[in-house]
Amino acid sequence: MIEVIIKKYFDGHLNVPSFFEHQESISKLESFVMIERTGGRSNNQLKSAVIAIQSYAPTMYKAAELNEEVKKVVAEMIELDSIARVQLNSDYNFTDTETKRYRYQAVFDINYY
Asked: pTM score, two decimals?
C-alpha cells in the first residue's frame, strides 16, 4: 500500500509524527501530518495514487513551513525503488474551521509499483 510506504518514509525523514486518521492523542500534539489517499488507478502493472498530505501546526506560518518540508520530503521519495514518479498536483491553505487548527494541504500524484 502506497500509504504505508509514505508513512514509513515520513517516519524516517520528518521531525513530526504522521498519521492515517485522527485520534484522541493527536489533539495534544502541536504539529503533525495526516496522510490520505483520495484516489488512484492501475494500468499495465503501474499503479497511481492521488495522495493528500495535511500539515498541522500552531500558527499558519508554521503550517506553511511544515507544508514546504513535506513537499521536499515527498519529492525525495523518488529515490525509493517502489516509486516511479512524484508530481505535486497542488498545495494550499486548508485551515480546519471546525477545530480552528492551522493546516496546509499538499496533493500529489504518485506512480508506484
From this structure: 0.93
